[in-house]
Design goal:
There is one protein chain. By secondary structure, the chain is an alpha+beta fold. The protein contains twelve helices and twelve strands. The strands form three sheets. Strands 3-2-1-5-4 form a five-stranded antiparallel β-sheet. A hairpin with a 2-residue loop joins β4 and β5.
Length: 460
């Protein structure tokens, strides 16, 4: 049996027993002492008046007796208002909010009561009575939230809601659930009175919760900014390593050969005779050829590191320039629709150019089609080559450095496909490559102030 009902039954039984005793004592006892007929008629009224006066005088004691017998403190609406005011004056949110839920439940006789705070555009459960610690975090205070008052009213555990407004802005809401019982006018009035008394506290609590949410968002934004800086640092390191590798491959052997030819020409010039002069001229001609090749190689490296066409005309034209030097026909379609930052365009360009060189160096009848796209805050390049001269495994190795650079910028590279089923120069594989990255490197902030644009996982 509910302890509230039990307390009311005990109170009623005590009052009924006391009234019965007083009536019997007054009517029978006094009636014997005063046998006059006129007095006997007035005795029941005197007994009733005496009972009323006694109830008023002994009501506090009666309440204490009921509490001792039932171990339950029955709460009247007025007591609930007094408790709510006391908890509000306490100033402790940990005590005030659960206490408000408790006095709502006891004052209205509802099995469930809750206090909701407006955080952003949602209502978040701040306190409830009773609170079950065994519930999952998503259903407990701080974890459970609803979109608005209408959604709150549709919940099975909610029968009545009183909003707490700050002007026209919703700050909080009080709710009770009384399954199988009516919400009485007294219950509604009590909830309004408690809401009016707690309005200032709940407004302050809601504002503190909103401030805490903004601080949390600011922390997330700072973490996102730090991650962006780390990605840029990794990208710079990848560029440095790539440039060192390119320069080493381009210069080591060629400079050694050039030095040997110059030494040969020097030895020939130091000797006497026309024949030695002809040998010197041959060595110098060879050295000049090697020097021209070295200069051409430096131009290729410079164009790869900082392609002027990419800077001036964008990634489509820059990829067309790379495709012009390759044996296989390459078609670059699509585009970004607008010029983006250098890091964005170059990040996609380097991956596309590296893939193009691997897939189009050999003469293949089928065209190689590359598609550039820009949408939903991301830019991407897609290649679906069913006549690839290299398989996914080799292409994955060739794109390792460029893919790592793109991932450092917050992008992702997905490479799938099938290896060639046969061996030989005419063997063909199927390669599907998609590289993408955000169209902005700065941390994005939504209208509510939350960071957006989280990194996508990369698979290389």
């Amino acid at each position: 049996m509910n302890r509230t009902i039990l307390a009311r039954l005990v109170r009623g039984l005590i009052v009924a027993l006391a009234v019965a005793v007083v009536l019997v004592a007054v009517v029978d006892g006094v009636g014997v002492l005063l046998p006059a007929e006129g007095v006997g008629v007035l005795l029941p009224f005197a007994a009733a008046a005496l009972c009323g006066a006694a109830l008023v005088a002994f009501m506090p004691r009666l309440g204490r007796i009921v509490i001792r017998l039932t171990h339950h403190r029955e709460t009247t609406p007025y007591m609930a208002l007094a408790d709510a005011a006391a908890r509000i004056r306490a100033g402790s949110l940990e005590e005030a909010l659960p206490g408000l839920a408790e006095v709502l439940a006891e004052g209205t006789g509802a099995p469930r009561a809750a206090v909701w705070l407006a955080v952003g555009d949602r209502l978040v459960l701040a306190a409830r009575h009773p609170d079950d610690p065994a519930d999952p975090p998503a259903l407990r205070p701080g974890g459970l939230s609803v979109e608005n008052l209408a959604v709150l009213l549709t919940r099975d555990d909610t029968d009545h809601v009183v909003p707490i407004l700050d002007g026209t802005e919703l700050r909080a809401a009080l709710s009770v659930g009384k399954p199988g019982s009516w919400i009485t006018p007294a219950d509604r009035q009590l909830m309004r009175d408690v809401g009016n008394g707690a309005a200032m506290l709940l407004r302050g609590v809601a504002q503190n919760a909103e401030l805490a949410e903004r601080v949390r968002r600011a922390d997330e934004l700072a973490a996102t900014l730090q991650a962006s800086r780390q990605r840029l640092a990794r990208a710079r390191e990848m560029e440095r390593r790539r440039l060192v590798v390119e320069l080493s491959h381009a210069t080591t052997d060629r400079l050694s050969d050039l030095r040997a030819e110059v030494l040969t020409a020097r030895t020939s010039v130091a000797a006497d005779g026309a024949e030695d002069g002809a040998a010197a001229a041959t060595s110098l001609a060879t050295a000049r050829t090697g020097l021209d090749e070295l200069l051409d190689r430096f131009r290729v490296i410079a164009r790869g590191v900082y392609p002027s066409v990419l800077r001036d005309h964008g990634p489509v034209n820059a990829l067309d320039e790379v495709a012009a030097d390759l044996t296989r026909t390459v078609v670059v379609s699509g585009g970004f629709g607008e010029r983006l930052g250098w890091e964005i365009e170059s990040g996609i360009y380097y991956v596309a150019a590296a893939a193009m060189k691997e897939l189009a160096e050999q003469d293949v009848d089928e065209e190689l089609v590359m598609t550039l796209e820009h949408g939903d805050g991301r830019v991407s390049v897609t290649v679906d080559d069913a006549a690839a001269p290299v398989g996914p495994a080799r292409l994955r190795v060739a794109l390792a450095d460029e893919a790592e650079r793109l991932i450092a910028l917050g992008g992702a590279v997905e490479l799938t496909g099938e290896e060639a089923t046969s061996a030989g120069p005419d063997a063909r594989a199927h390669v599907v490559l998609r590289a993408s990255m955000p169209d902005r490197l700065e941390p994005l902030v939504d209208p509510a102030g939350a960071p957006a644009g989280a990194d996508l996982p990369a698979r290389v």
